[in-house]
Amino acid sequence: MVLKAASFLVRNGPVTQQDRWEEEPGYSPFTLAVEVSALLNAADFAEDAKDADVAKFLREMADIWNEGIERWTYIQDTELSRAVGVDG
User: Fold this and answer.
1) What pTM value is reported for the model?
2) Residues 34/32/64/15 CA torsion (nearest 10 deg)
């Protein structure tokens, strides 16, 4: 069941059609954090099941998604950021 759930995440994530927290499509830092954690936990399950290839793949996917969080969620030069004097 865990590996089926991880497979669903890999096929459909990390972007969502409607984030459960923001109720908008796109990337949510909270959802991304949960998805990365889920992939890492699923990798541990795969490793325990002696499936090293799947464990490696899931850890690599988690790393890729983790590296993308700032790129996907940090926005610069908006009206609000200019109003309060910050970059983004």
Assistant:
1) 0.82
2) 130
